[in-house]
Amino acid sequence: MNVGIIGTGNMGKILIEAFIKSSAIKEQNLYIMNRTKEKAEQIQKEYPNIHVVDTAKDIVNHTQYIFICIKPLDIYPLLREIEPFLRQEQCIISITSPISVKQLESIVPCTVVRVIPSINNRVLYGNTLLTFGEKCPIHHQHFIEQLMSKISTPVTIEENITRIASDITSCGPAFFTFLLRRFIDAAVSETEISKEQATLLATKMIIGLGQLIEQEVYTLETLQEKVCVKGGITGEGIKVLEEEIGDLFHHVIQQTHAKFQQEKEKINEQFCL
């Protein structure tokens, strides 16, 4: 089964690398293109059996499943460009959250699916968020679920939780990396530890924390209880966190949702909604 990827920026490249690393798709079954062809050709240097093509029409002509990995406002013009060449048995897969499957279905004659990946998929981990179009047949659903299960744990979601689910799975790595870096910076600023030592210790700590949760040794609640001995040093640190974090994450979610709404309004203008 041939798979096409339009757009080889950050997420497009992550999907390509993950599909090949997991053996989900053979190199010779991947067709890729990018507006700047050199970017796609750089990927081909790593994976020489991948097909680099010149146009989106070439992707449509050679593949059955077509991942669209470009900026949200560029998707509508692209769909208009390729719509005359799409076949009913094909499947369009968008990776952007502001465009709904209903909007995609209003443009193209084929099946549509939305798959929201995460940077964690690069190491065959984390989640991918799936939303299927109303007309998506079972065989397409099964193929997408099986494909994404090779690089992640796929989770099917409804439209109304798209943004918050994306915040947790896709934005979460950036949010918590930011917090970890601030933790390291504070350690270096307040003590004599070097940045290299602090970074090593914090990195190993977060990996170990993930393993404790992954292996179900502790839940999030019981883990904190095990570390935070009553009257101990950790408890004093928790007090500061409780006092100073406040509504921080409420504000983060409010901000991402506000930006999401702005993008949706621009997209709705394109789709005349």
TrEMBL record:
Pathway: Amino-acid biosynthesis; L-proline biosynthesis; L-proline from L-glutamate 5-semialdehyde: step 1/1. Belongs to the pyrroline-5-carboxylate reductase family. NCBIfam families: PRK07680.1 (NF005814). Residues 160-261 form the Pyrroline-5-carboxylate reductase dimerisation domain. This is Pyrroline-5-carboxylate reductase. The gene is proC. It comes from the Bacteria. It catalyses: L-proline + NAD(+) = (S)-1-pyrroline-5-carboxylate + NADH + 2 H(+); L-proline + NADP(+) = (S)-1-pyrroline-5-carboxylate + NADPH + 2 H(+). One of its GO terms (biological process) is L-proline biosynthetic process. Keywords: Amino-acid biosynthesis, Cytoplasm, NADP, Oxidoreductase, Proline biosynthesis.
